[in-house]
Every structure is written in C-alpha cells, then in structure tokens.
Amino acid sequence: MSRTAGRLIVAGMEACWACQAELPSGARFCPACGTRVQVRRVGEERKVVTVLFADLVDSTARADRRDPEDVRATLIPFYERMRAVLERFGGQVEKFIGDAVMAQWGGITTSGEKEDAVNAVRAAVQMRAELVDLNKVWIEQGRLDLKIGIGINHGEAIVGNLGSEAKSEISLIGDAVNTASRFEGMTKLYHVDLIIGENVAALVRDRFIIRTIAQSQPKGTLKSIEIFTVLSERTNGSAEPAWLASYEEGVTLYRGREFAKAAERFESVLTNIPNDWLCESYLAESRKLAANPPPPDWSPVDVLTSK
Questions:
Q1: Among the four residues 57, 73, 215, 254, which has the most C-beta atoms within 10 Å?
Q2: Strand partners, 162
Q3: Which stretches of the chain score pLDDT less than 50?
Q4: What is the rounded CA–CA span in Å between residue 267 and residue 122?
Q5: pLDDT at position 6
Q6: Got the DSSP string for the chain?
Q7: pTM (2 d.p.)
C-alpha cells in the first residue's frame, strides 16, 4: 500500500487517503468525505496504441433545422450508448470534443497490440449497429436520425499527463493520434462510415472482412497510407461477399495500369452492389485513363487537399 499526494493505492484500486473510499476515475474530490484529490503526475512515455475517433456527420447543419430540445433528446442517449460500447470493448474514452469522441487502447492498459486493435474495430462495428437501432426509434418518433464517421489508427504515441496541476489529464499526442483523426474526416470523402489504416488492417484482417478503399495521402502528411473499411467480423461459417474478390482484383488492376480490365471488374461488381460509390468512382477513373493513358510517372495515390 502506498500513498500518493491525496490518493491511496490499495491493491491496484485508487482510494481516498483520508477515508479510504474508492475514487471514481478522474475524480478531483472524494465523493465520500470531500477531500481534494491531487493529480498523480505521470511521466511521458512512448507507447504503441490503437486510437479511435468518431464524429457525427453533418450534425451541425442538420441540427440547425431541428428544435434544440429535440436535438438534445437525441444526442444524450447517443453519447451514452457509444461510451458504453467503447468501454465494453476495453476502450479508454479520452474525451468528447463537440460531437466527436476519442478513445484509445494501450495507453493505460493493454491486452497486447493485436487484441487492442481487434477490440477497437469490434467497438466500431458495434457502434454502427447501435446507431442503426437508435435511428429506427428516432425516425419512428419523428426525431433527428444520425450518421457517424469513425477512424482507427495504430502506432506510437506519447502518453503523459498534460495540463497544469489544477487541471491535468492523461492523454495521447503524436502522429498516430493525428492520423486517426484524419481517417475519421476522410470517411466523408470516400462515402464510408469507417476507415482503418494499414497498421490496423494487418492486425485484424484474420478477424474481420475488410475492403480496400485507396492509397491515400492525407492533407498535411508526406507519405501515402493504405486505407480500408470493415464490412463485418468473421464468425464461424461466415463467408466474404461474392463480389469482394472481383472488387479487389479491380483495384489491383487499376494500380497496375490495366485500366480496361479494371473497368470490367468494377462493372461486374456494380451488378451486385448498385450505386456503390467506391466502385462507381474507380470505374469512372478507369474508363477515363483507359481512353487517355497517363504518363509513366502516374501514381494511383489520392493526394488529398482537404481534411
């Protein structure tokens, strides 16, 4: 048992030094006796983490057209449900920023790099399902239905106590965090609700059915990143969609400059999933490049000019 500036650490549990009541996470005062809880200073440490950002899509513009009480009655259960999902799968909810939420795995506790990534993607898939259920109820009630964008990245970050003595919190900073946020913003550009980076995909592709989106260079970065979306979790007896192999072949052909063959694949896929934005986008670009071949230094990388 050790005492730390207003906190008592008992068998891994944080308790008030004055009355030994258990302290809720992040508490500044003991709920039992009112004693001020001082922040325990944590040194900066470089760790491998999985970071998730989720944000509501076009929520401000859509909320402006609704009654504020209606919007509030929609958002509160949304945030409660999303937090519960993230914590159920081991996520540490870092903060709510406006309509966005950030969570991380590995910064404070870890189940191992692979399981952290798997749990983050499981949480995202479940967040989708929860939102579908919530929207059904809200639409029946004539309320605002919501759309979400989620970005997940895996890599190194600095974990430390940020802020002042009066107001401080353990948080994450670094490129891995920034990239996860960029992925969330990119969901709107690629018309998907979830984007995972190549590091996450390498860890989870044996557990989830994933689909290639693009090689993309996010705004403000100097290198391209392979990005994917997640279709579903692999379960006993589950099979990949029949169209997925042809779609992935089309992407490979496109990157290999075989544009006419790529167009054939995307045309075939669209008979199975009509109006699919990714397929339509690749098909249009493949047809254009087949008709007017690009120069030898052509690259399939999407260089983004907006977040």
A1: 254
A2: 169
A3: 1-13, 38-42, 61, 164, 166-168
A4: 31
A5: 39
A6: -EEETTEEEETTEEEETTT-PBPPTT-SB-TTT-PBPPPPP---EEEEEEEEEEEETTHHHHHTTS-HHHHHHHHHHHHHHHHHHHHHTT-EEEEEETTEEEEEESSS--S-HHHHHHHHHHHHHHHHHHHHHHHHHHHHTT-----EEEEEEEEEEEEEEEE-SSSEEEEEESHHHHHHHHHHHHHHHHT-SEEEEHHHHHHHTTTEEEEEEEEEE-TT-SS-EEEEEEEEE--TT----TTHHHHHHHHHHHHTT-HHHHHHHHHHHHTTSTT-HHHHHHHHHHHHHHHSPPPTT----EE-S--
A7: 0.81
DSSP β-ladder status, 2-4 and 7-10: antiparallel
CA nearest to 163, candidates 171, 155, 151: 171
pLDDT in tens, 194-231: 999 999 999 999 999 999 999 999 887 888 999 999 99
Strand order of the β-sheet with 7-10 is: 2-4, 7-10, 13-16
Answer yes or no: are the C-beta atoms of 36 and 166 closer than 8 Å: no
Residue 232's pLDDT is 94
| Amino acid found at 28 | R
CB–CB of 148/131 below 8 Å? yes
Q: State which amino acid sits at residue 60.
A: T
Cβ count near 105 (within 10 Å): 29
